[in-house]
């Protein structure tokens, strides 16, 4: 078997190990080490990876951003900001048909701007919004579908640590990637709100009752209570963009800022602080294990010459670039269910990025890298709400007593359609992702 064939066979083997419930990071590490042995015919280079690869991977200053953004998300979840965001959104939208569900989407978008985690956004906003949706008669299907979909916005709107990982892998500017994610994130929120409006009119029995219309004085009063979220967002993103902070320093500023808000709101007790630190450490350990496994696997793939062979094959065959892009995005949609976002990006980017970069989409290499990063994140996050294995669906469903998982699957279907429409729009019009970057640089 040739080295390239070994590289090709590593993917079905990896998927089998994952379906056998081996942790993804460990599965990638095993495939990478064994594959390295099969190519070099010696265990010495394989085991040397544990020394050289571990040090070279985790001594990178850039990866310090991961625990800091995770800690920022933990503090944001316990700061009490989620309640004020939901109340403010409800004050402006709650009187409309399906307005409380729309308010949930708006609150998820705003909370995601200081959290950066899809699952944390879904779980935190679920605790706040789900009781209100149920109390006003929303069906379990629409309530859980709304919150599962809204959670996916949390990792798209900046600051997103997944985008930081993508930037490190492709050697791109993190500030430009964050700027490029803003409009697609807003587009996702608008699309979800339009979806709710359509569902509320086609199936009004799912939408429940509305809040009474509030006077503008009360609406602005509620709006004034959400000041911590935009302050943290502007401090982090503005600091990165203006060059005052590096991304790692900005993550530290965000973590301190959300922590101070939690202290001010008297929600960050000593036991809560310990819980946040343990959750941050556990999450960091899990993520770093996935990063190490992906590094070992990618080292093996580099030895097999599979990425270079794939790029050369696609270029020589003269395939239509848009067809190749469509097939890659479909692959992400399919694999996004059984694999989490980070694993997908770490596993696939070293292979598909050189392939797509060699194609002509009428963009400069930097513009293409930014556009492709946003597209990748969008379609991978769709996997989080794709039945039957989307993680957001199970997180929200577990919080909704009396709602079957089948009802949640049914409730999220309209949002999946919205996601597919949004993906087509972002593919067809790269300028949607790029115009802020081009305008501000």
UniProtKB/TrEMBL annotation:
<feature type="transmembrane region" description="Helical">
    <location>
        <begin position="318"/>
        <end position="335"/>
    </location>
</feature>
<dbReference type="InterPro" id="IPR010656">
    <property type="entry name" value="DctM"/>
</dbReference>
<comment type="similarity">
    <text>Belongs to the TRAP transporter large permease family.</text>
</comment>
<keyword id="KW-1003">Cell membrane</keyword>
<feature type="transmembrane region" description="Helical">
    <location>
        <begin position="6"/>
        <end position="39"/>
    </location>
</feature>
<keyword id="KW-0812">Transmembrane</keyword>
<feature type="transmembrane region" description="Helical">
    <location>
        <begin position="223"/>
        <end position="244"/>
    </location>
</feature>
<dbReference type="Pfam" id="PF06808">
    <property type="entry name" value="DctM"/>
</dbReference>
<comment type="function">
    <text>Part of the tripartite ATP-independent periplasmic (TRAP) transport system.</text>
</comment>
<feature type="transmembrane region" description="Helical">
    <location>
        <begin position="280"/>
        <end position="298"/>
    </location>
</feature>
<keyword id="KW-0813">Transport</keyword>
<feature type="domain" description="TRAP C4-dicarboxylate transport system permease DctM subunit">
    <location>
        <begin position="13"/>
        <end position="431"/>
    </location>
</feature>
<feature type="transmembrane region" description="Helical">
    <location>
        <begin position="416"/>
        <end position="440"/>
    </location>
</feature>
<keyword id="KW-0997">Cell inner membrane</keyword>
<feature type="transmembrane region" description="Helical">
    <location>
        <begin position="141"/>
        <end position="168"/>
    </location>
</feature>
<comment type="subunit">
    <text>The complex comprises the extracytoplasmic solute receptor protein and the two transmembrane proteins.</text>
</comment>
<feature type="transmembrane region" description="Helical">
    <location>
        <begin position="60"/>
        <end position="80"/>
    </location>
</feature>
<feature type="transmembrane region" description="Helical">
    <location>
        <begin position="250"/>
        <end position="268"/>
    </location>
</feature>
<feature type="transmembrane region" description="Helical">
    <location>
        <begin position="100"/>
        <end position="120"/>
    </location>
</feature>
<protein>
    <recommendedName>
        <fullName>TRAP transporter large permease protein</fullName>
    </recommendedName>
</protein>
<feature type="transmembrane region" description="Helical">
    <location>
        <begin position="174"/>
        <end position="202"/>
    </location>
</feature>
<feature type="transmembrane region" description="Helical">
    <location>
        <begin position="342"/>
        <end position="364"/>
    </location>
</feature>
<dbReference type="InterPro" id="IPR004681">
    <property type="entry name" value="TRAP_DctM"/>
</dbReference>
<keyword id="KW-0472">Membrane</keyword>
<feature type="transmembrane region" description="Helical">
    <location>
        <begin position="370"/>
        <end position="395"/>
    </location>
</feature>
<keyword id="KW-1133">Transmembrane helix</keyword>
